[in-house]
Amino acid sequence: MTPLLCDDKIILRAVEATDLDTILAWENDTTIWEVGSSMAPFSRKSIWDYIESYNPDIFAARQLRLIIERNDSRQAVGMIDLYDFDPMNRRAGVGLLIDRAYRHQGYGMRSLALLAGYAGKFIGMHQLWAVVSVDNSHSVDLFKKSGYRITGRMKSWLRSGKSYRDAFMMQLLIN
């Protein structure tokens, strides 16, 4: 049997207390706030509270965060999320963050593939979706290479300073 959450390079694992400083650094990196939904810094306590109350049951929490870890060094290289889980329609949004030091090395594509396999085979999900800024060509290309299709363009969807940017709705049909 092929493991659901790992391949020969990475493993997708649950959030651990030892991830506190790493998650704090990622969440407080203001250079990526515009591609996510952060509007203010997170405190160490707020991240600790999140980790302490972490619920891996996607049906109860309606979300799932997994740490992307290298198999060889056990180094966390990013995190991947399922959010806005809709159990009736079996779909969820996908959020992906790869640490700056590990970008363009295939970790994002591997993570998206493992997540899709897990979501389809184990959770029984029908589709995954992502909202990606039309300006973010690296992410658009990554999701396309991972099987996602652009299914719509949302006008003025993402705020950037005092202006707005369009975003693509990208979808992956699993089952």
Automatic annotation (TrEMBL):
Keywords attached to this entry: Transferase
GO molecular function ontology, one term from the record: acyltransferase activity, transferring groups other than amino-acyl groups
UniProt keyword Transferase, yes or no: yes
Pfam families in UniProt: Acetyltransf_3 (PF13302)
Domain N-acetyltransferase: 10-175
Gene3D superfamilies: 3.40.630.30
PANTHER family found in the cross-reference section: GNAT-FAMILY ACETYLTRANSFERASE, SPERMIDINE N(1)-ACETYLTRANSFERASE
Identification of the protein by name: N-acetyltransferase
